[in-house]
From TrEMBL:
It is found in: Cytoplasm. GO terms for molecular function: DNA binding. Residues 79-235 form the TACO1/YebC-like second and third domain. Pfam families: TACO1_YebC_N, Transcrip_reg. Belongs to the TACO1 family. YeeN subfamily. This is Probable transcriptional regulatory protein KS407_02820. Residues 3-74 form the TACO1/YebC-like N-terminal domain. Keywords: Cytoplasm, DNA-binding, Transcription, Transcription regulation.
Length: 239
C-alpha cells in the first residue's frame, strides 16, 4: 500500500497552493455534519472525525467555530451528499464525493470536468467496486514494532503498517479509526501527519507522461469545483 500513501502525500502537498479552497470545503463539511447531529464532537462521532482530519490540514479554529455556530444557529441551508464515478485516460478510475445544494448544477459541472479533460462519467458502481474504504493514519516518533505493540495492547488490528521515510502509515478498518487514534494518543502521540478515511484503489496504475498530464488536469478541474469535497483515483503519482 506504500504507493497509495504517495498519492496522499501528493494531495497534502498540493493543498498548500489552495488553502482558501480547502478551508471553504472543510467549513461546508463541518457545518453539514454538525447540523446532522449534535454540534459537539464529543457527542457526534462524525463531527469528531471531520475535526481530526481538519487538524491535519491546519484549518484555522475561526473557520471551524464559524461553521459550528452556523449549525447551532439553525441555518436552513441544506446539502445533499452525492458520489460520482468516472474514467480518465488509459484505464484510470475516479471517485468524486460532493456536498451540494443544487444537484443539477453539480452533476453538470462534474460531467463537464470529466468530458473536457479526456474522461467520462460512469454509472453508480462502475468504479467503486475497485476501491476499498480504508482508515489511514500517519504518525512520527514510533517504530513499526512500537506501533504494532500499541495496537495489540489496545486489541486493534491493522490491514497494513508501512514505514515511509520515517512516517509510520497505518491502514485499518474505517470503524476502528477513532479507536486507533485514541490508542496512539494514550501512548503519547499528539499529532498525526494524516488522519482520514479514504477510498483506496485495490490496484494502482502508472500512466505515460502525456496521459498523466491530462489526468492531473482532469483531477484539478474536479477539485476546483465548489461542490466537490474529495477526489479519489487509482493512478500512482509517485516518482
Amino acid at each position: 500500500m506504500g504507493r497509495k500513501w504517495n498519492n496522499i502525500k501528493e494531495k497534502k502537498a498540493a493543498k498548500d497552493k489552495n488553502t482558501s479552497r480547502i478551508y471553504a470545503k472543510f467549513g461546508r463539511e463541518i457545518y453539514v455534519v454538525a447540523r446532522q447531529g449534535e454540534p459537539d464532537p464529543e457527542l457526534n462521532q462524525a463531527l469528531k472525525f471531520v475535526l481530526e482530519r481538519a487538524k491535519t490540514y491546519n484549518v484555522p479554529k475561526s473557520i471551524i467555530d464559524r461553521a459550528i455556530e452556523k449549525a447551532k444557529g439553525g441555518s436552513e441551508e441544506n446539502y445533499d451528499e452525492l458520489r460520482y464515478e468516472g474514467f480518465g485516460p488509459n484505464g484510470s478510475m475516479v471517485i468524486v464525493d460532493t456536498l451540494t445544494n443544487n444537484v443539477n448544477r453539480t452533476a453538470s459541472d462534474v460531467r463537464a470536468a470529466f468530458g473536457k479533460n479526456g474522461g467520462n462519467m460512469g454509472v453508480s458502481g462502475s468504479v467503486s467496486y475497485m476501491f476499498d474504504e480504508t482508515a489511514v493514519i500517519g504518525l512520527e516518533g514510533k517504530t513499526e514494532d512500537e506501533v504494532l505493540e500499541i495496537l495489540m495492547e489496545a486489541d486493534l488490528d491493522a490491514r497494513d503498517i508501512i514505514d515511509e521515510d520515517g512516517t509510520i502509515i497505518i491502514y485499518t478498518e474505517p470503524d476502528q479509526f477513532h479507536a486507533v487514534q485514541e490508542a496512539f494518543k494514550n501512548a503519547g502521540v499528539t499529532d498525526f501527519n494524516v488522519a482520514e478515511i479514504s477510498m483506496l484503489a485495490q490496484t494502482d496504475i502508472k500512466l505515460d507522461n502525456e496521459s498523466q498530464a491530462q489526468f492531473e488536469k482532469m483531477v484539478d478541474a474536479l477539485e476546483d469545483l465548489e461542490d466537490v469535497q474529495q477526489v479519489y483515483h487509482n493512478v500512482d503519482l509517485g516518482e
